[in-house]
Design brief:
DNA-binding; 61% helix; mainly alpha; 11 helices; homodimer
Chain lengths: 225, 225
Amino acid sequence: MLPNLSIQVNECIYLKSPESSELGRKIVTGGINLMDELGFESFTFRKLAVRIESTEASIYRYFESKHKLLLYLTNWYWSWMEYRLMFGMANILNPRERLSRAITLLTEQVDEDSNFSHINEVKLNRIVIAESSKAYQYKGVDDENKIGVFSGYKQLVATVSDVILELNGNYKYPHMLVSTVIEGAHIQRYFAEHLPKLTDEVTGEDAITEFYLDVTFKAIDIKRG
Amino acid sequence: MLPNLSIQVNECIYLKSPESSELGRKIVTGGINLMDELGFESFTFRKLAVRIESTEASIYRYFESKHKLLLYLTNWYWSWMEYRLMFGMANILNPRERLSRAITLLTEQVDEDSNFSHINEVKLNRIVIAESSKAYQYKGVDDENKIGVFSGYKQLVATVSDVILELNGNYKYPHMLVSTVIEGAHIQRYFAEHLPKLTDEVTGEDAITEFYLDVTFKAIDIKRG
DNA sequence: AGAATTTGATAGTAATACTATTATATTTGC
DNA sequence: GCAAATATAATAGTATTACTATCAAATTCT
């Protein structure tokens, strides 16, 4: 579809670009598969090396630690979301409709994007839902934040905040609303699967997307687009 | 104040009750101090043993793992919150006022509760904000959930959901709203400290509590109490 | 006082999260 | 087409973590 498209990830996250070689792509592809299977805690570079038939030392030449690999994956995901958001809002003139589309894209269940063949977006989405908070709930956040590790996420939040301000320039909490929606949608999907008493399942609709669309438009006092 | 009050934590979380001995209380008190200082990843039972001048093996007689200690702390916190909520809503007849008080208690910054002298609630609140998601975002959730490890949290969400349903019996997403508010308030406090671009700081008010009060009452179509 | 239980001291194990070294492929530049 | 540069594999090694085991000393229970 778009053969020359590539998602950029901040260079300070990796030692050597995983897009630059076959091994690099295997680390990312295999890393997504294995982290999805085992969870972040049980995932190790040793196990990944066995899975992709390479060695621990070779993986360490691409990523300093498994924490950096998680950062790489979440960053890729935020950049990919930003691109999907821009694409989904392009040429839509009505800002209410743009906001609807943005919230829907941020909260709905993702499916495969054939533009990026070495990344399984469904599995990556599951990793983001279950593990992404570990990428920033970490004693080293402040240092990592200084070197720009979270700029992709901030950018995404800023993009949607701008649409909100376009609809209601007086709204006081646009960033808080957007990050609440993004994080909330992830947590609710996790709860729906593991702790259903903490959420509400409604048959015949995507309750999570419905809920956050409703909350968002009511919060900014605008009728839904 | 209430000298005979004690917060109950589900027995399956510990091997031996930390309330039952001096050492048990030192493990909890010291555990809170050290986990607040180091963060969950860098916290170890070996370091805690040095801090409280005991041994690793002795700590293991109370808690199977540091994960169980984190579960104990978060469970204590949810039970304590439930008690604060019940206390704060007691004898308030107007349900709008009850909901206001509940959301405020769930989202505001906590301070010391002199009823529980071996627990520092301010530090515990910081731990809950920074680490509590690691207590359930974990490959073993489903098994732990089966034995009732998260019932305190579910109970808390159910309590506030009931107030919402009292105000608007047709509201479709009471649990989703409450868990979004609780988790959201924690994440926003974390963002305010570490990733401020992801939130909004407004001078002269507790923006986080204000935001969630506003969102909650608008979501359920009720004027603020 | 004697029995039972709790704690401390010490030791040990398998796994984790790396780092280092060297040999062998593979790519690139000329 | 070949040497030089670079990337990868194979192997080994270290400090730390997350436990488990054993036994003696201290405490408490009756």
